[in-house]
Structures are given as structure tokens and as C-alpha cells.
Design brief:
alpha/beta; 13 helices
């Protein structure tokens, strides 16, 4: 399987230098990451929302080694909120954050991440939108869920992400569904051991459906994070079976992947949110996109051969 190999490469400084230096890399990366700073991303926000789409925005970068970098990540999100304010988009433009960017892995990281993310959640609420806490590797999840629960005391609209390939996720989904949480369900993009996660694609797909059924039957707001046509169709059917109206759940897909499907779902009256990342520290994000889907890797390899 190529996925684990690519994920290993995402942590390699040598591969980072090699791929970053390739002449075609920026052209290919631009497919997934439409800008390096907030000035680049505001026109993208306007364009997508004018097409009837919604967004969740991620300032990329996870290799935080000191509290000053964590504070800088916080400030980058606060700048984003400030630039979104005059657009008056409300929840049509929300944010996704990785707590690793806010210092979660540092000494005292749980409290540091909470103290850094809270101002972002507060600022988002002030302009009528919200924040979703992204899931990372399984060792970080207890901290993420605890921070999610703490933030929801004052900001109940705060969302979180769960990953279908983890054994623990079905129990997490039941708890979150009962509490009325906003939950994005994804398959999972981190290399996890067989002791904690399904390794077989078909097992992961089956787990995804089981978890999604729990979310649809629950009290929360399910967010279907998938590009898989079969899972999208199953999601629509499960929503119908649960009696959910189109505004009671949504689909989410990555910027640059299946763009025509984004527009099709929106045209049919579904809430369709595009996960849109930007920033200069794009390498780790980009490599996980390649690992998630073989077609993405083929696209990159073909570009390297024909354009490099």
C-alpha cells in the first residue's frame, strides 16, 4: 500500500526538500492549496460562496516546537476572522484548527492549546461563525475531545472530527451524537497501528457507514467528509431515513478534489462545504492528500513527468 509510504515521506526532511524543489510542485500544490496568506484566500472565499458553496478554512502548519510559534498560529486565525468579518457570511465560512498548531504537543500542551484556541473560538462567535477541531493521530484525541467539551460549555456550536478507521470511534460517535455536537466524519489520514485502527479499506468503509448511521440518528449535526460517491449516496439515504432536512446535515470535500461534485450537490439543495487550506507550510497537508487517494498521487506523478 502506498499510503503508509507517503505518510512516512511527509515526515522526511529529505523528501520535503526534494519535492519542494521540483519545478512543477507549486503548480500541483495550487490545486489543493489556493494561497499562501489571507490576502490570497479572501477572493477564493468570495468566489466559492458566490457559487452557492460554503467553506471551512485551515491555516496549514503543524510542526510547532515552541510557544511563540503556537501564539503565531493563533494570531493567524485571528487575522482570518478579522478579514471574514466584513464579508458577513456567518456560518457559510467557518474555520478548522489542528490543536498541534496551538501547542498541544509541547510541555503543558493541553492547557496551552486550550488557551490559544479559545480566543479564536470567541472571535469566530462574534462574527456569527464557528470552529471545528480537526482530529490528528490517536494519541492526541483524548486531549482534543476534552478541549472540545470545555469549549462547548460557552460555545456549543464548536465542532470536532472523528475518524472511521479507529476502533474507538463508534463509542465516540454515540457520545457526541447524544450531546448534540457538530461532528465531521472522515475515514482517517494518519498512519495508525493495527492495534487501534482498521487497516483494510472495506473494513474502514463499513465502519464509516456504521458511525454515520449513529450520527444521523442522534441529536447532533453530522458533517459527511468524503469524496467517495458510494458513501455520499449512502449518506443521503441515511439522512432521509432519519428524517433530516437538507439544513440538518452537510457534505464536506477538499478544495481541488471533485469540484464538479461540489457544485452538483449544492445545486441539488445540499449544504456543501469546501475544506480550503492556505499558508506557506503546506508540505505535510499536501502529502496527506496524496496518501488519502491514489488518484491524487497519479495526478502529481503525471505532472512531475510531463511538466518537470
Amino acid at each position: 500500500m502506498l499510503g503508509p509510504v507517503i505518510l512516512a515521506a511527509s515526515r522526511s526532511d529529505r523528501m520535503r526538500r526534494l519535492i519542494s524543489a521540483a519545478p512543477v510542485t507549486k503548480q500541483v500544490v495550487d490545486r489543493f492549496i489556493p494561497g499562501e496568506d489571507v490576502d490570497d484566500i479572501v477572493p477564493v472565499v468570495r468566489d466559492l460562496t458566490e457559487q452557492g458553496l460554503e467553506l471551512t478554512m485551515d491555516v496549514v502548519g503543524e510542526d510547532i516546537t515552541n510557544p511563540a510559534q503556537a501564539a503565531a498560529a493563533r494570531d493567524a486565525y485571528l487575522e482570518l476572522v478579522d478579514r471574514l468579518k466584513p464579508l458577513e457570511l456567518g456560518t457559510r465560512a467557518e474555520m478548522s484548527v489542528k490543536l498541534s498548531m496551538f501547542g498541544q504537543a509541547l510541555e503543558g500542551g493541553h492547557e496551552l492549546a486550550l488557551s490559544n484556541v479559545r480566543p479564536v473560538v470567541e472571535a469566530a462567535a462574534e462574527i456569527g461563525t464557528t470552529v471545528t477541531l480537526d482530529a490528528e493521530d490517536h494519541t492526541t484525541l483524548d486531549s482534543m475531545f476534552a478541549i472540545h467539551e470545555e469549549l462547548r460549555k460557552d460555545f456549543p456550536q464548536t465542532g470536532c472530527v472523528i475518524q472511521a478507521y479507529l476502533f474507538r470511534t463508534e463509542a465516540d460517535a454515540r457520545r457526541l451524537a447524544e450531546s448534540g455536537s457538530r461532528v465531521r466524519l472522515v475515514k482517517g489520514a494518519y498512519k495508525e497501528p493495527a492495534s487501534v485502527a482498521y487497516q483494510d479499506k472495506h473494513e474502514i468503509d463499513r465502519a464509516y457507514v456504521r458511525v454515520l448511521r449513529t450520527l444521523m440518528r442522534g441529536e447532533g449535526y453530522p458533517m459527511i467528509g468524503s469524496h467517495d460517491p458510494r458513501l455520499i449516496a449512502i449518506g443521503q439515504e441515511l439522512a432521509h431515513q432519519a428524517g433530516r432536512k437538507p439544513d440538518a446535515y452537510e457534505f464536506q470535500m477538499l478544495y481541488g478534489i471533485r469540484t464538479e461534485e461540489h457544485l452538483r450537490l449544492a445545486a441539488e439543495g445540499h449544504r456543501m462545504r469546501v475544506y480550503t487550506a492556505y499558508g506557506t507550510d503546506w508540505y505535510g497537508y499536501f502529502m496527506r492528500r496524496l496518501a488519502e487517494k491514489p488518484a491524487n498521487l497519479r495526478f502529481f506523478a503525471r505532472s512531475m513527468l510531463t511538466k518537470g
